[in-house]
Amino acid sequence: MKREEFSSSLGFVLAAAGSAVGIGNLVAFPVMASKNGGAAFLIMYAFFVFFICLPVMLAEMSLGRHTRQNPLGAYTEIGKNAAWRAVGWMSVITPFMIGVFYLVITVWIFGYLAKSVMGQLEFLAAPDSFGVFINSNELFIYMAVVIGLTFLILQGGVKRGIEQAARVLMPLLFLMLIALVIYVMTLENAELGVKFFLIPDFDKMTGKVLNGALAQAFFSLSLAMGILITYGSYIQKGNNIVQAGKMVAGLSLLVAACSGLLILPAVFSFNPDVQLSELSESSISMIFTFLPKIFLALQTNIGYLGASFIASFFFLLVFFAALTSLVSIIEVPVASLMDGKGVSRRTALYSLGGAMIVLAIICALSFGRVDLFTSLTSYGLGADGLPLAKSFFDLVYDIFYETILPLNGLLLCLFVIYRWKKHNFDAEISQGNSTFAGSLLQKYINFSLGTFIPVILAVIFVNTVATVFFGKNLLF
Ligand code: TRP
Which residues cross the membrane (predicted)? Predict the structure, then answer.
């Protein structure tokens, strides 16, 4: 059977941008940037996106398009030995497990959306609601809806499912983001937030900040998750990979920058005296505990109904962003099963989906409902000098999202340059791009992927293991 393809380069760009744009761009980035040097952070982040992340992105896309395979198939076909095949396995198990915890987060977002629409903003803004909500039975209703929607999109296949969803959701997402930015700019003291987001402070650029920024840029672009290999395998041979990659990176950056103009002004109009140190680095606590309070406070200006409307609008925006990321990550194991076992999309989706739902339910029960899953293990180092208690959710997050991703990225660079070989990689990019061969870009990509990018990823990997599992950050 002929492999499905995106209908055009734009179809790929929207789908890949849909994958890349998520809560990282919308919430984590603005907070990180304002705390760590404002515009200085933004400039450095943009530099990382184009000079370090883009080459990796192009490597993944080319590998996918060349082999017309999922990551496991691609590593097996070109690697030709058991070691590379093992790396291939790691590249499909990782997105499967990331899919599990991301499903849970998407369900929470959908739940907050539903509750804002149903007029329960007051509940969402109360101090303990998040804990109550994530342990409620209602959660499973929202889970059923999110799973249903995700399956519906994936069942439609590449063109009529993934691409079509991105063609509808991404333009809506951009419009909603712009509308919200315009709205918050009209609020009192909004300009204070813009200042904090944009005034550069170069003194804050420490090794730790640089490491955090690079890791954020890298994962936010969906790198090392097998997604761009898989989506790359659906790109037409005549499309220009370099141009498409630049557009995906640019769109993701644009959304991150615009989100800064949304979140920070909202925070400062809520409380002009807010200390940046009070803002949590965690997007989870920003979205689910801090922002609902801000939305509720809007009622003094626009009434409860108006405030609920703004909150619903915001959660819908975040939900669209999360849904397209969730779809992209689940497509990786689905494609692997279809390619590897020759089963239909439906069979692949139902068998993997079943396993994923069981694990997602275990995650959802690991916030206090079931002791075994809640206090599964402990490691690392807490403020009190003792190891931190870790739930099943924490464990999945720490192992797959924090630790294995940089390792996967590092192995991918080595694989493309030293196993697949530069000339094959260049030949693939050159299809659809006649000026690539011999260009400065070609030299830069080949050099960086074979030298300093894997070294940087190795440093991030080692430092993450030291920080997460041993409580020692090696960078200052
Ligand atoms: N888009 C997410 C973010 O910025 C990160 C991410 C990239 C992701 N690809 C993903 C998350 C796939 C889940 C699944 O927050």
Answer: 12-33, 39-59, 87-110, 130-154, 166-186, 213-235, 247-268, 302-327, 348-368, 399-418, 449-470
Which residue shows structure tokens 């890298």? 218
According to the model, what pLDDT value does residue 383 have?
84
Collapsing DSSP states into helix, strand and coil, what is residue 356? helix
Query: Rounded to an integer, what is the distance from CA 4 to the centroid of its chain?
Result: 24
Q: What is the DSSP letter of 51?
A: I
- Rounded to two decimals, the pTM is 0.96
> Across 258-404, where does the E strand assignment appear?
377-379, 388-390
Phi-psi region of 280 (alpha: psi -120 to 50; beta: other; left: phi over 0): beta
User: In this predicted structure, what is the pLDDT of residue 124?
Assistant: 97
Kindly report the protein residue whose alpha carbon is nearest to atom 9 of ligand 1.
Answer: 222
Q: What share of the chain is helix, strand, coil (3-state, %, to 5)?
A: 80, 0, 20
Q: What is the pLDDT at residue 307?
A: 97
pLDDT of residue 435: 96
Q: Whose CA is nearest to atom 15 of ligand 1?
A: 24
| Ligand 1 lined by 265 (C-beta under 6 Å) | no
CA-nearest residue, atom 4 of ligand 1: 24
The answer, yes or no, to whether any atom of ligand 1 lies below 6 A from the CB of 448, is no
Q: How far is CA 385 from the centre of its chain?
A: 31
* 107 closest CA partner among 357, 346, 279, 348: 357
pLDDT at 280: 84
- Ligand 1 pocket check for 222: Cβ under 6 Å: yes
Q: Are 476 and 207 in contact (CB under 8 A)?
A: yes
324 Cβ closer than 6 Å to some ligand 1 atom: no
Q: How far apart are CA 218 and CA 226, in angstroms?
A: 13
Please, are residues 53 and 20 in contact by the beta-carbon 8 Å criterion? no
CA distances from residue 227 to 42, 57, 323 in whole angstroms, order as listed: 25, 10, 14
Strands 377-379 and 388-390: antiparallel
* CB of 406 closer than 8 Å to CB of 215: yes
C-alpha to C-alpha distance for 221 and 22, rounded to whole angstroms: 9
Q: Looking only at Cα atoms, what is the longest distance across the chain?
A: 65
Task: List the structure tokens of 197.
Answer: 């987001």
d(CA 131, CA 203): 37
**Which residues does the chain have with pLDDT short of 70?**
1, 476
Is 233 a pocket residue for ligand 1 (Cβ < 6 Å)?
no
Domains and CATH numbers, the chain: 9-375 (1.10.4160.10)
Q: What is the pLDDT of residue 476?
A: 67
Ligand 1 mean position, distance from CA 20 (Å): 6
Q: Is the CB of 22 under 6 A from ligand 1?
A: yes
